Amino acid sequence: MKKITLIVLILIINALHSNISFADQKKNIDHITKNLRCLICQGQSVYDSQSDFALSMKKLIRIKIKEGNTEDEIYNFLKEKYGEWIVYEPEVNKNTIFLWGLPLILFIFGGLLIIRKVTIK
Amino acid sequence: MKNNKIFYFIVILIVAIFIVLLLGLKEEKNYSLQPETKKLNNSILLKELYSGKNIFLNDLLLENEINLINIWASWCSPCKAEHPYLINLNERFGINLIGINYKDNLDNSKKFLSDLGNPYDEVLVDSDGTKSIELGAIGVPETYLINNENKIIKKFVGPLDQDDYEDIISLIKK
Asked: Is the ipTM of this complex over 0.85?
């Protein structure tokens, strides 16, 4: 009886674990595909699109995740094939440094102005 | 005096942002092909259409020769339009032509080739489209010219036309 209980317990834990890892994997695929541009669609991400290209891309990402590739490795692989345009979030380089830095500059500058106003009063 | 400085700084900042955004508008917003000097991924494994054997794409490329890879499907009408060019390239110029059958019914693809002629030295099957993505494809038909170092030197998106055909011939003869 004890053995049966143990086996049932192991099976339940195993089922729960695979359910959790499946949900994690699905979440990961969704996260990556939301940041990928569908190259043959009008303003849609791979996540949103049901085109042949997007469906194959989703499948390939699932395979890459199963193979143990990280999110960055997947982005780099796709950027090598399709260029920087494939990702919605541009990486920081000399062409995008202003784009990334500007909000920070404005935030610091705005903050300084507010502090100055408050301290003067 | 200090207030004036802040005012000028803000004005300059706003003008700078405006110029950056204006320049950004002029940039091409559509997907443009990558410069094709990348080495072909050597781990692309596909099934052969007739035998069902697994073959690495790289193993089919002839050394020291220009090779052509064509992605096609029987359901794709532009593929029918470019088919005579592929037949000519293979028969008249003896180019090593590898076909990748994209997301297709195998019986239909075999019928397509028996009806229109088979220009391919080998036909591989990409049943779920993932292998084509590993090549950098966005759909069918697409054709890649591979040089003797297994690098993609030219990519043709869409059906080949007379200009593309002449382009390929001139590259083969180089």
From this structure: no
